[in-house]
From TrEMBL:
InterPro entries in the record: DUF3618
Organism: Brachybacterium halotolerans
Highest taxon in the source lineage: Bacteria
Pfam families documented for this protein: DUF3618
Protein name according to UniProt: DUF3618 domain-containing protein
Amino acid sequence: MRQEATRRQDNLASDIDELVDRVNPKNAVARWANEAVSTVKGLFRR
């Protein structure tokens, strides 16, 4: 049951992010930039 609740929370968070992005596309760009930076940093931390 916890896994299902966690999955639903993740889906809801994703849906909310998508709605916010449609209202203000700058938020999407900022989030994508942050994710890209985190990914690159993760590659070099090994």
